[in-house]
Amino acid sequence: MIFTVFGTLDYTEVFHMAQSGQFSPTVDFLIFGPVPTMTLICLLLFVGAMGKSAQLGLHVWLPDAMEGPTPVSALIHAATMVTAGVFMVCRASPLFELSETALMVVTIVGSLTAFFAATVGMVQNDIKRVIAYSTCSQLGYMFFAAGVSAYAASMFHLMTHAFFKALLFLGSGAVIMAMHHEQDMRKMGGLIRKIPITYAIMMIGTLALTGFPYLFAGFYSKDAILESAYAAHTPVGMFAFVLGLLAACMTTFYSFRLVFMTFHGTPKDKHAYDHAHEAPWTMRGPLFVLSIGAVFAGLLGLPMIGEGWFGEAIILAPGHHALMHSHHVPFLVKWSPFVMFVVGLALSYHMYVRSPQIPAQLAMRWNGLYKFLLNAWYFDRLYSKIFIEPAKAIGQGLWKTGDETIIDGYGVNGIAGTVVKLAESIRKLQTGYVYHYAFAMLVGVLVLATFYP
Amino acid sequence: MAVQLPDIDLLPLLPEILIALGGCTMLLLSAWNGTATRHKIGMSTITLLVITAFMVFQRAVAFKHGMNTDLALQTHLSTFEGMFVGDFFSLYIKMLLLLSTGMTLLISTDYLQRKKMDNGEFFVLILFALLGGMVMASAGDFMTLYLGLELMSLSIYVLAAYRRDNLRSNEAGLKYFILGSLASGLLLYGISLIYGATGTTMFSGIAHHLHESLGQMSGTLAMGMVFVISGLSFKIAAAPFQMWAPDVYEGAPTPITAFMAVMPKVAAFAAIYRVLVYGFGSVHDKWSGILQIVALLSLLIGAFAAIAQTNIKRMLAYSSIGHVGYALIGLAAGGMAGYQSVLIYLGIYIFMSIGTFAIILVLNQEGIGEQIEDYKGLAQKRPLLALLMSIFMFSMAGIPPFAGFIGKLYVFMSAIQAHMYFVAIAGVLFSAVGAFYYLRIVKYMYFDVAAHAFVMPVSGSSKFILTVTTLVILYWGILPSTLTSWAELSIKSLLPSL
Amino acid sequence: MLSLVTFTPLIGALIIFLGFKNNPGTSKYVAMLSSILTFLLSLKLYLGFDLTTSDFQFLEESVWLPGVGITYRMGVDGVSLPFVILTAFLTPICLLASWEVIQKHVREYLIAFLALESFVIGVFCALDFVLFYVFWEAMLIPMFLIIGVWGGANRVYAAYKFFLYTLGGSVLMLIAMLTLTLSAGTFSIPELMGMSFPLSFQIWIFLGFFVSFAVKVPMWPVHTWLPDAHVQAPTAGSVILAGILLKMGAYGFLRFSLPILPDASRFFVPFIFGLSLVAIIYTALVALMQTDLKKLIAYSSVSHMGFVTLGIFSFNQQGMEGGILQMINHGIVAGALFLIVGVVYDRLHTRDIARFGGLAHRMPVYATIFMVFTMASVGLPGTNGFVGEFLILLGTFIANKAVATVAAIGVVLGAAYMLWMYKRVVFGVMQHEDVKSILDVSPREIATFLPLIVLVFWIGFYPEPFLKIMHASVELLLIQANTVKAGTTALAMF
Q1: Whether B103 contacts B465, CB under 8 Å
Q2: Cβ of B439 under 8 Å from any chain A Cβ?
Q3: Residue A407: which of C221, C285, C398 has the nearest Cβ?
Q4: For A398, which of C165, C282, C397 is closest by C-beta distance?
Q5: Do the Cβ atoms of C404 and C396 come closer than 8 Å?
Q6: Is B481 close to C65, i.e. CB distance below 8 A?
Q7: Lesser CB count within 10 Å: N end or C end of chain B?
Q8: pLDDT in tens, C64-120
Q9: Which residue has the higher pLDDT, A333 or B240?
Q10: Residue A412 touches partner B, C-beta closer than 8 Å
């Protein structure tokens, strides 16, 4: 698409041409008739980014990808793959800036993802799934940051997130190893006594993720995003801000839920507990490095959201200065994430440490909601119903009916069958009686004589 | 006024004289010595054939090098006032006839000994049939043609029924005789109609007549032509005159089947050339349509009926009907390319056919080989035999790089040059159907488990013929230019105007 | 030189036939040697190939059938050379793959295989119609035998189906070919490229060729021989079938339809696009439901070849080069996938996907190799599949956006069935006892996969050495394909 409009795929050239307006404003796309070129390009790019970065609607693969071994999932999530989508959107900022619609879509999808994934993350029992949905949610943050043109904040969060999410994954890997490949949190508990180092590391990661003020990386980046959303002063921005805030609360809730369920309380699986042990040094080494990053990346990276750090790489359209305004937001807005943090922490502590029977009661009372969340809003099943099962049915139908019955049955084998039948009937002409033969010959002569022109 | 001497020049007749004398000698020998000299008669027959073939070959080579320059050759072109023609065409056909007869005898020596069929008469009959065929090839007149045809046919009727103790053999001979007489009747009737319309039985006379009438044909002449075509179609077993072929092929002793599959067919094609291509050459468009119908019918029956067969000789009967269909396409297409293609096709066909029958005869030693199922698993026990058989089968199916493909290629080229697209497309589609039954034999040989021990020895003469036929099929499949140039030369000598 | 490349395998076959009557062991080495020699010779062709010209190179010409003007004429250009090399490259791998697997009639197997290689190379080198047809048809015989003699349970049906399907297609091509050449008065392919014919004539000839090529490609709906042939053929047979024989049809389009019959080709673009899309989507869906590993890959081949035809008929540089490259890629990847199936089939004698599961635990190396080729088949960036698919989609997009979009759905479906299959085979729980004791790949098997893996990444990361040999020829082809030779106005419709 970019290629047809601009005739090149080189970043620099495309951006330059886009800025100077060297393209036709509308283009025919499939059956939709003429649509604004930039919006189309951006939306198509964004769909790609959504797939890659597991945004709402195209996120279903991510938790399932947890099948991979832990270092791989750490890598996939935190550092490289999923963030590629965010990176692409930021990278293509010169294009996105030209389309208000596209930015709006990005913001809405991003904030919805952040909210959705956080709700789901609250009830998951698989330790890696919690972190997976958390990643999903954090990516939502990044997207809506980009959507309100706070690309720098987005990139900043991307970086800090890389540290603490990798930390969490490797940490959870250590936990899983300690528990002999047990991933279900309900079977853990009280591990703090057995693996204190891992506990400390996980705690750092959690605090960073939840954005504990002033000390941990997540605080700076997440705050920057939320403030930018608020400061965008658009309805969409506000929408994103509110959802983001709620998501922040839930983030804290599920993060600490994870910590509490895993390390506090009483061991549920006595046998596994007894054999739990610290991870070997080879595993702990990277964890230490990452925890340092998780603590300090925020402070060190702060200049990223300042002026001009990205230079020409990110181009803002006039009027899109949410990030700059973000430094001047009301006190309440500035502290709201922390409030949310406290609320989430308190809830989590109350439910999983003080009175562990509450979650079960809640689940009982709102069984429908609980199931709904546990199954991730039934996206998997929905997709399975809409896409996978029909695809399978169609495939089966085409194979059995199309290929085997029609083409092979009537076509190939049909022809072969007809040939054999014809052969049989021609063979029957051969009766063996001489007078039949003689008759055939005479008829033949007659026919030829008649046919003669 | 000088006394006109009758035009009697025996030089062109030399091969025929040799064969005739040889045949009579064998007859006498076998009468005198009874069974004692059986083997000798066989050997001397083959020697005679080799000598004659060598002579024909010599003469053909001489022709090839000096056709336009050597006056001595030109004067010996025809004799008996043009009733007998000794042109290059006749030499080409005679070479094919001699080759097919000689090869048939070589592959059947074993069989003949085993079945106690190697009496003197057998060879005598073969020789007379061959003589008839050779006369047909050189016929310049309907009378000569008919003479040769009857000599050939009568000998073969007897040969088909040669195994007197075998019911099927007798039935085959009788059927062939009755239907053959009917065909001869048709032919004779046609000849008399033509004579009535043109006042001559000479082919050159007919050509002259048509030239004078500017290609206009009277109804009588046309009817005569249709009858002659019908009569000759019987001999080449083209549909709808093919009915006898499967029964006779199946019933006749296998060496005779092999013989019938090649020799009379080539001779009858030669006769068709003499009558239609030479005599009625200027009204090609008038008979082309008839031949197209006959060709398509033959292809149809050849391709489809063969599929349902379980007896390999019967299957080969249908396959030969199919091959005749292809050859007739070339005739119907006409022109240099068309006429040439048929001669090429025939040359290749005799080698494929003889090769196939050679293998059938080898297998016959164990009392098997007549049913297609007998070939199950041949490849496991006798890989070489199976390999050769599959080469023959693929060649018959017209798959390159074997010679059968070249034959079909030339035929289809001529058909397309003549804009006979429908016939060409039908032809290739039938060839695809036909491939099915050839493949079936390959399938039995290679894909199935052996049902027999296949320990029969292969006689030296069979080995020799198998080697020769295989090499020829491979060689002509890749480098057919010798064959094509000979065929081209034959047509040039038959129709100098082309 | 070309004749040497073409006939070296055949000479090897002849040596085996005459020289090693009861010695299958030595025969194997002779076969290997001659196929490797062929490969080296083909590399020499590559090194000696002049990249700057679009002319046919290494020309050889000698009179073959005088009188009708049929000549023995060989030559390669940038379109055919990649296929020559691919063929010469895959054959030693196939021989290596069947080194221990083929136990009965070893000599005959080797002879058939080498003959097949000869004929296939001949198809790609022939510059005379009749010569081309001879190689094209001759190739059926060894393949028929390979499927029929060394194949699986239902091999007879598959062998017949393969043979008659293809034969039925190619006899019509023979007619079209003869009509074309006889009306033009030459059998030379390069000469015919420079001639022009009226549109209606072109259309008929195109249809004649189309039937034959479509069967070979295979395009929907004449693809049904392929699953049977693939499933029943021995592993190496499937490799050569997927790797090379399928390419002959698409090669035919490139060599004949586009340059000689450009107007008809353009006339049929919507038709071909339609069939290709059906092939892509339809067979991808069918592949999704397969329970037999080989059948799944066979259907995926049909789907992938749909992309190739899309690319070829996109009439632009990207599409065509993508199409050719994708053919090479598919040759490598599908070939490798069949080898992969062969590995487990040799061990367990089943190809039922449900029987596997959890192979990763017992066969980690195998699982890794499998993953590489699965990803390449899906078209993951960094693998060769991506480059080809991307170029094709780009080319198609330029030609027709809607078609490209639908084709992109095919990419997604392709990823779906491949990954699902991979998951079911490699991951999960081992359910059957025999799977639990399965052995990982042997060094011999690794040796067969290694060159293929190298190529997957090489083309994936740096396709230029492969693309550059086609540039000049594809440019010429484009010019030829885009010229209006018929001079009629009927083309305005498109």
Answers
A1: yes
A2: no
A3: C221
A4: C282
A5: yes
A6: yes
A7: N
A8: 877 777 888 888 888 888 888 888 888 888 888 887 777 777 888 888 888 888 888
A9: B240
A10: no
Structure tokens at B91: 């030499």
Put simply, the answer to whether B247 touches A432 (Cβ < 8 Å) is: yes
**CA of B180: how far to CAs of B186, B198, B232, B275, in Å?**
10, 27, 10, 19
Alpha helices in B3-37, H assignment, sequence order: 14-33
Residue B232: both structure tokens together: 């000759």
Average pLDDT, consecutive stretches of 10 residues, N- to C-terminus, chain B (498 residues): 66 87 86 69 87 88 70 63 86 93 90 81 91 92 93 92 85 90 92 91 89 84 90 89 88 90 93 91 87 91 85 90 93 89 93 93 80 85 88 90 90 90 89 87 86 83 92 90 88 82
Q: Do B293 and A451 touch (CB under 8 A)?
A: yes
From residue B69, alpha-carbon distances to B64, B75, B87, B498, C180 in Å are 10, 12, 14, 18, 39
Q: Which residue has the tokens 């949905």?
A: A133
- ∠ CA(A161), CA(A164), CA(A165), 5° rounding? 75
Q: Is C141 on the interface with B (CB under 8 A)?
A: yes
Query: What's the pLDDT band for A29 if we cut at 50, 70, 90?
Result: very low
B175 vs A: CB within 8 A: yes
Please, what is the average pLDDT of chain C? 82
Q: Residue C16 is which amino acid?
A: I
Tell which residue, B340, B477, B465, has the closest CA to residue B396. Answer: B477
Distances (CA, A) of A30 to C281, C307, C401: 18, 20, 7
CA C433/CA B306 separation, integer angstroms: 51
Residue pair A370/A362 in contact (Cβ under 8 Å)? The answer is yes
Q: Burial, A12: exposed, middle or buried (Cβ in 10 Å; 0-12, 13-18, 19+)?
A: exposed
CA distance C176 to chain B (A): 9
DSSP state of B119: -
Question: What is the value of ipTM here, to two decimals?
Answer: 0.86
Interface test with C, best of B348, B394, B446 (most C CBs within 10 A): B446
Q: Is the pLDDT of residue A237 over 50?
A: yes
Q: Do C156 and B447 touch (CB under 8 A)?
A: yes
Q: Give all strands (DSSP E) within B369-488, no chain letters.
A: none
**Among B428, B481, B485, beta carbon nearest to C171:** B428
Residue partners of C368: CB distance under 8 A and separation at least 6: none
Peptide bond into A280 cis (omega under 30): no
Per-residue pLDDT averaged across A83-88, rounded? Answer: 68
Separation in Å, CA of B411 to nearest CA in chain C: 11
Per-residue pLDDT band at C489 (split at 50, 70, 90): very low
Inter-chain CB proximity C289 and A399 less than 8 Å: yes
Instruction: Give the Cα separation of C111 and C11 in Å (integer).
Output: 10
Mean per-residue pLDDT, A356-381: 63
Paired strand residues for C63: C71
Lowest mean pLDDT among A365-374, B422-431, C90-99, C295-304: A365-374
Nearest CA in chain C to B340: C67
**Candidates C222, C227, C288; nearest CB to A392:** C288
- List all residues 6 or more positions away from B114 whose beta carbon is below 8 Å from its beta carbon: B365
Torsion over CA: B411, B414, B420, B421 (sign) = positive
Q: Which two tokens stand for residue C349?
A: 């004698």
Contacts of A177 (CB under 8 A, 6+ apart): A279, A283
- Chain A nearest CA to C113, separation (Å): 28
Chain A contacts of C161, Cβ < 8 Å? 412
CB pairs under 8 A between A and B: 82
User: Model's pTM, two decimal places?
Assistant: 0.78
What residues of chain B lie within 8 A of the CB of A445, using their CB?
Answer: 186, 226-227, 230
Asked if residue A5 has pLDDT above 70, the reply is no
